[in-house]
Amino acid sequence: MATYEQLFENNRKWVEEKKAGDASFFDKLARDQQPDYLYIGCSDSRVPANEIMGLEPGEVFVHRNVANLVNATDLNVMSVINYAVVHLKVKHIIVCGHYNCGGVRAAMIPKDMGILNPWLRNIRDVYRLHKDELNAITNEDKRYERLVELNVQEQCINVTKLASVQQSYVKNKFPVVHGWVFDLHTGILKDLNLDFDEILRGIQEIYNLTGSEE
Ligand code: CO
Fold first, then answer.
1. What DSSP state is assigned to residue 210?
2. Stated pTM of the model
3. Confidence label for 214 from pLDDT (cuts 50, 70 and 90)
């Protein structure tokens, strides 16, 4: 376990390594950011966003919270998405969950979790929406894994409900929303291959905020 002081030592080493690879690394970094990706993932310390995608500083805009939730009353995630879409004009929005997610696990346990209740409620709502499919899975571990995937799927739908996302997509054909799951046992990222166009069409009857009739 690194000590607190060790972190600054690590930082100095990192700076030297970056400069050794590219002397102008920090000059470029300080200029501007133009990331193509917005990544929304879990706060879990075992899922480091940049590292698992092999991306350098400046290449991905990141938001993380417990169980990678996109809730319309969460000013934090709403601001992140709005800034990423309207100002950074990201081409892709990735919602990335992970198996063995403590937040998803906690939502499967019928217990009063205090301050966590309203947060976990979002995941319990996902369970309710997909109750028939989930309850049909008799193996509890498999049911847990499926809830992780369905939670990602529903958060992708929540991203798609946003006016900024819909309006940009109608105009520019981006951002495209993707749902992924990270497997801690293998390190592999799994693409859930959600059909973004189909999701968009599916919700438009109720959530169309593009200002057009279709
Ligand atoms: Co998690």
1. S
2. 0.94
3. very low
Q: Sort 116 into a burial class: Cβ within 10 Å, 0-12 / 13-18 / 19+.
A: middle
In the chain the domains, ranked by start, together with CATH numbers, are 34-205 (3.40.1050.10)
**Which residue in the list 12, 22, 27, 42 is annotated as catalytic?**
42
Catalytic residue among 46, 125, 191, 201: 46
Catalytic annotation, pick one of 63, 98, 156, 178: 98
Let me know if 92 is a catalytic residue. no
Where would I find the H helices in the chain? 4-21, 25-31, 49-53, 75-82, 102-107, 117-129, 131-135, 140-160, 163-172, 196-207
Check if 96 is active-site: no
Q: Which residue shows structure tokens 């917005």?
A: 38
